[in-house]
Inverse folding.
């Protein structure tokens, strides 16, 4: 019974951790889905959004603003910073590269990553900044059935709820709005979309803004969990296997991929780790991704792309 | 004619202007500083780098350098990455009139890589409280100076403190002690000493690795929750430390049963976790936070003159470690100057200075470090020079010293140093020096 309790605990915490990876993966999916660009800078956008939020929040609280007002103003300030970032990226990076090969656009986002990382730390500092927007303690469930109960972190559950709301909102945005449909048209073919009058610069600004706002949401959860600091950018590396498994173009895929990666890596660390030296969860996620790549190269939910040669 | 004269005058002024800095540089001691002011480990790297820089500034401002030889520092950003650290080393090793005086990489990974390079370049490595524990043996590691303490010292002292809390060394028998460690050369370093202690004292030891940078530790702490060890030792760095404390709180593991190494015992390690850090303990590399006599001079000659790079970190644990690091390095240079004269020293001369460094209690008092560190005496054979450490506890606002000095048990550690360094010598085909013949 103890062993089953332990398994359940690891499994549930893995699923919830996976949902938090999905929050970051969603930003990748959005930009890829809408512009065909694999945005390597998503992790650094989470850092920038988090730093803008926490630093403005701290400043406002120190100036005597009520906490609720400081939170609203901090979120608005961070959103403005993400809007400025989206504008600059569109104007000076992607705009001049219209109709270039996907690989070139991908490389340009690597450059954007370094720019954002450097600028964020230069503007807002390199320290660890605590953020406490959500409760950080845990529930101990079924303590009568299992010795010590099953531990479930409240912050992880909050992350799950937020991810669900985000996915619903994004699904509506893509399916039901004019801008959402335009985004999908741009993703299919830049030149064709332009020829039917879709303003490419505006669409790219919107999609980077939405990805920036998703990054801000991810930053609120991850910042509460870890403190806002540079290591948040490493989440991008966690999002990669999630995307490979879920597919680069599927919003639900990002969630399912996250669940598989989260549960898989935590169970592997707990049950496989002791036999092979431990510390395996980082690379185990990639092993899972490789297995999926072998069976379904487009991911579980990705679109199968057939190109005529 | 007038034009020619003017041209000559301008050229002469130009040459003078160019020659002045060159002349000044020829009389300066070049000291490189490998720092990480950005990246995941920046919260810990910045205060240390600030302490290093401020102490050098103090010597320049107060004394005009070391015995009148001005220090010319240059920082290079490593991001705590070994490849970047080696790159920085290669870029800076030949700078200045005599090359780099010494290097302090503040990274066990970079130390491991540079240990292979420094014998060829003849530049000493000052790795105060980190690096290869067996590099204490100067006969095999002539260029490494693991001054003040090694990870084996730390591991031994941690176990002694646990024994003290339990009521005696015999009470360790049957206990469970886990080590949550950064899965890197740094984190793995204490394992050998802890296994040795476990064998001797009859406790069960378990190592639990955490991958870089240490933001994901949930499964490790769930395992600890199930295993319920009596104590958890923490060998983390940067964000790994505060994450470990948060995860410990989340699974209900008592913070007073956690003891961090001295690299897991600074303000950036506890403040991000807020109240959850209360009662968490950590070892001290002798010194802690706070102001001592040297800080009066720092205030007067560096801060008051607007030349300090420190911010909120002034007199915090890692800032103080930075000034201590610089003090050891510059005192080694001063020692070398006694033999070689008051001029910029080469790496080889600085190495001689390290090996003959003898900081008595009186000298430490004179330098303003009394209360921060005890006497340190290095030699050809012993590149560590001290074996003591204390324990501090975080009360939610500041670190409180909760123990006296423990002395590491050399009857356990010395044979380990001997065996490990002999193995290193055999692997690298090094013939150990005969220290009885060194002067």
């Amino acid at each position: 019974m103890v062993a089953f309790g332990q398994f359940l605990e690891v499994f549930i915490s893995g699923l919830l951790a996976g949902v938090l990876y999905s929050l970051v993966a969603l930003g990748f999916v959005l930009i890829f889905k809408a512009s065909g660009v694999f945005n390597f800078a998503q992790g650094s956008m989470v850092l920038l959004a988090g730093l803008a939020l926490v630093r403005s929040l701290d400043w406002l609280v120190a100036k005597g603003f009520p906490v609720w007002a400081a939170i609203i103003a901090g979120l608005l300030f961070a959103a403005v910073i993400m809007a400025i970032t989206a504008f600059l990226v569109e104007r000076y990076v992607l705009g001049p590269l219209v109709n270039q090969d996907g690989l070139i656009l991908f490389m340009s986002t690597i450059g954007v990553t370094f720019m954002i990382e450097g600028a964020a730390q230069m503007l807002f500092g390199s320290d660890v900044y605590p953020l406490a927007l959500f409760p950080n303690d845990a529930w101990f469930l079924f303590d009568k059935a299992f010795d010590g109960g099953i531990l479930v972190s409240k912050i992880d559950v909050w992350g799950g709820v937020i991810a669900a709301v985000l996915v619903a909102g994004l699904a509506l945005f893509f399916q039901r709005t004019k801008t959402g449909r335009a985004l999908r048209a741009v993703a299919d073919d830049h030149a064709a979309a332009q020829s039917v009058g879709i303003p490419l610069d505006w669409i790219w600004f919107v999609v980077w803004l939405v990805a920036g706002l998703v990054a801000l949401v991810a930053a609120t959860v991850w910042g509460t969990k870890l403190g806002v600091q540079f290591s948040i950018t490493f989440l991008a590396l966690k999002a990669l296997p999630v995307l490979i498994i879920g597919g680069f173009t599927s919003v639900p895929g990002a969630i399912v991929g996250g669940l598989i990666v989260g549960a898989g890596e935590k169970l592997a660390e707990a049950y496989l780790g002791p036999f092979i030296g431990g510390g395996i969860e980082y690379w185990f996620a990639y092993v899972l991704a490789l297995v999926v790549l072998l069976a379904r190269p487009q991911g579980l939910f990705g679109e199968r792309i057939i190109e005529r040669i | 004619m007038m034009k020619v004269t003017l041209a000559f005058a301008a050229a002469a002024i130009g040459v003078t202007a160019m020659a002045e800095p060159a002349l000044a540089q020829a009389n300066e001691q070049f000291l490189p500083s490998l720092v990480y002011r950005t990246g995941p480990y920046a919260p810990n790297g910045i205060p240390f780098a600030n302490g290093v820089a401020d102490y050098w500034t103090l010597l320049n401002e107060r004394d005009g350098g070391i015995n009148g030889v001005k220090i010319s520092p240059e920082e290079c950003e490593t991001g705590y990455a070994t490849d970047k650290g080696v790159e920085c080393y290669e870029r800076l090793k030949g700078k200045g009139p005599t090359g780099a005086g010494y290097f302090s990489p503040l990274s066990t990974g970079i130390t491991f890589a540079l240990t292979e390079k420094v014998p060829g370049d003849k530049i000493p490595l000052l790795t105060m409280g980190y690096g290869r524990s067996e590099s204490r043996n100067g006969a095999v590691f002539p260029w490494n100076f693991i001054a003040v303490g090694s990870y084996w010292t730390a591991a031994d002292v941690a176990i002694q403190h646990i024994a003290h809390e339990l009521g005696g060394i015999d009470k360790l028998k049957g206990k469970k002690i886990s080590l949550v460690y950064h899965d890197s050369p740094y984190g793995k370093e204490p394992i050998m000493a802890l296994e040795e202690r476990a064998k001797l004292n009859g406790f069960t030891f378990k190592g639990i690795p955490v991958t870089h940078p240490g933001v994901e530790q949930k499964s490790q702490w769930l395992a600890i929750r199930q295993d319920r060890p009596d104590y958890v030792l923490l060998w983390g760095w940067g964000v790994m430390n505060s994450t470990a404390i948060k995860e410990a709180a989340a699974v209900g593991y008592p913070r007073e049963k956690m003891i961090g190494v001295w690299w897991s015992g600074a303000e950036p390690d506890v403040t991000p976790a807020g109240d959850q850090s209360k009662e968490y303990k950590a070892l001290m590399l002798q010194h802690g936070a706070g102001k001592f006599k040297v800080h009066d001079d720092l205030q007067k000659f560096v801060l008051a003159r607007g030349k300090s790079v420190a911010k909120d970190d002034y007199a915090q644990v890692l800032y103080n470690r930075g000034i201590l690091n610089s003090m050891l390095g510059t005192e080694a240079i001063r020692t070398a100057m006694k033999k070689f004269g008051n001029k910029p020293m080469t790496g080889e001369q600085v190495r001689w200075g390290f090996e003959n460094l003898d900081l008595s209690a009186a000298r430490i008092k004179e330098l303003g470090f009394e209360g921060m560190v005890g006497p340190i005496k290095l030699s050809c054979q012993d590149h560590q020079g001290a074996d003591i450490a204390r324990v501090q506890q975080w009360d939610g606002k500041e670190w409180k010293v909760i123990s006296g000095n423990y002395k590491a048990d050399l009857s356990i550690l010395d044979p380990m140093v001997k065996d490990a360094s002999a193995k290193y010598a055999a692997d690298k085909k090094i013939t150990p020096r005969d220290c009885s013949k060194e002067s």
Observations:
- Chain A touches chain B at residues 2, 6, 9-10, 13-14, 17, 117-118, 121, 126-130, 132, 136-138, 148, 151, 153, 225-227, 229-232, 234, 238, 265-266, 269-270, 273, 277-279, 281-282 (CB under 8 Å).
- The beta strands of chain A are 138-141, 150-153.
